[in-house]
Amino acid sequence: xxxxxxxxxxxxxxxxxxxxxxxxxxxxxxxxxxxxxxxxxxxxxxxxxxxxxxxxxxxxxxxxxxxxxxxxxxxxxx
Length: 78
Prior knowledge:
The protein is α+β, with helices and mostly antiparallel strands. Helix content is 32%, strand content 28%.
């Protein structure tokens, strides 16, 4: 298994791929629709030099979006 650094574009891409390739996730979460945004505080020791915000949007168990977003977009979209 390849390991990706947390909160990198590659990490987000692999999260999407993992979700899309596992029908069990969609089945278990089929009643779930949610828009959630996360702020990751800066942590230079982890290679995170500034705060990062990413959103995960699920509709009827399907991950429709996982991406970095601005703070304004986070408030509007979630």
